[in-house]
Structure formats: structure tokens, C-alpha cells
Amino acid sequence: MSQPIPEIVYPSPRQIMIRRTLTHKGFLIGAIMLLLISAAALLAPVLSPYDPYNQDLSRRMINPVWHENGSWEHPLGTDNLGRDYLSRLMYGARISLLLGGCAMLISGVIGTSLGIAAGYFGGRVDMVVGFLITARLSMPVVLVALAVVALIGSSLNVIIWVLGLLIWDRFAVVMRASTQQLREMDYVNAAKAIGCSTLRVLVSEILPNVFNNLIVVATLEIAHAILLEAALSFLGMGVQPPLPSWGLMVAEGKEFMLFSPWVIFIPGTVLSLLVLAINLMGDGIRDITAPEGRS
Hints:
Structural class: mainly alpha
CATH architecture: Orthogonal Bundle
Order of helices and strands: HHHHHHHHHHHHH
Distance between the termini: 47 Å
CATH class: Mainly Alpha
């Protein structure tokens, strides 16, 4: 008597996605790093040992704990005004994440709207959007940001809006190309045939199918905005004292880098780790959501 053929059970799409996520080392490393930095930022009022704004000139330039004369009282030392470096790093993470996220949302709304409109309608709309993208790419972001901030004034809100209005081009380019590939698909033509409005086609058929590309670009633009803010703060045109921006901490420590290099090394390292974590997550999301596009 023949044995019954066992039924083959195929994993569901959700199980495949979970398996890809748990086996992607780059994504996991980036997610853990970003989670730790985000937790330190959110719990800064609880975890930080000191007020990041309190100055004590009698305790200025205390070395970190790994130096011979370091102390666990200030594990990462103090700056030239006696402020605790660990506390300022935690609160600085708040500024970097807030600015990167808000600037990404502003640029994402602008770039995604323009890109989808250009890719779907084509013709004159595509020509106008292409002209706007070309005009934007012809302007150096840092120089334009410096000029605008010098005219308007520097504050956290100004920096967020300036960066958000300057880094939308990558969203527009990617969304335009993705929409051009999707606008002739059968499900889009079927939606048009049953009488769906243009807005419903864009929202229900186009946007969900470009969402994975949108997420990848969003992660890259968060890292881009964080680096631009650090550069502007280093040049004195970004977040102003006494806010604990990482770029500002590097700028304030450059006068002491020959004798106390850790005042630049510590915030620079944390900034690099944050950008690396975001980029690893973006690359991981691309691999997980569309692995067939990677070799």
C-alpha cells in the first residue's frame, strides 16, 4: 500500500518577510544601533546624570573615564564650560533625530507629490517637474542653506524648514521613475476602466506600490539631513548655543583638539554611528522588500 504524499506547506508572505528580516545582518545591526540611540534620546531626562545646560567652570575639561585622571563622576568628561559631555550627547541625539525626521517629512511630501504627478501625467507636468528638479540640483545645498540662515536667522525651526525645502529632489526622481513603470500596469488600467477617479488611482494603486522605494529614500534623507545640520552647526549657522547639537559640540571643541582630542572624537563618532545605522537600515529595507533587485 503506497504512502500518502505529504502536503507541502508553503510559508506565507508575512513569514517570508520575517525570515528575511531576521537573517539580514546589516538591517539588524542598524536597527539595534538606531534603537539604542533613540532610547537614549527619549530617556535622556531619566538617564542623563546632569543637566546638559549647567555650567561649572571649576570642572571644565575633565577627561573621560578611560584617561588616567578620568572619573566615573563624568564618564565622558566635561566641555570647556564644565558641562557634562554624556548628558549633552543624550540631549543632542534628540535634536538630530527630531531635525532629521521633520526635514525628511517636509521633503518627502514635496518630492513624492511632484514625482508621482510627473510620472503619472507625463507631458507638460513632467516637463515642469523636470525643470524644478534640474533647478534644485543646480543649487548647492550647504551654500543655499547658509545664505538663507544668514538672512532669516538661525533657530531649530528655521533649520528644519530650510533643509526640508532643499532635499526633496531624490524623492521626486525616484517616485517619478517608479510611477512611470507602474502607470501602464494592468491593475492601474483596470481601476481607470471601472471609473475610479485620478486621485483614487494615485492613492490606492500607485502609492502603495512605490511605498518600499519611498521608505528607502526616506531613510537616506534622514541621514542626509542630520549630516547637513551638523555641518551648518559646525560653521556657526545651525543650531545655536546652548542647545547640545553634535555638530555644535564638534565646533566648540575644535580649539582644544590638540590637547583633548576626545572633545571632537566623541560627538563625531556618535554622529557617524547614527548615520551608519540609518544607512544600514535603509539598505536592509531595500534588500528585504525587493531582494530580486539585488545581486
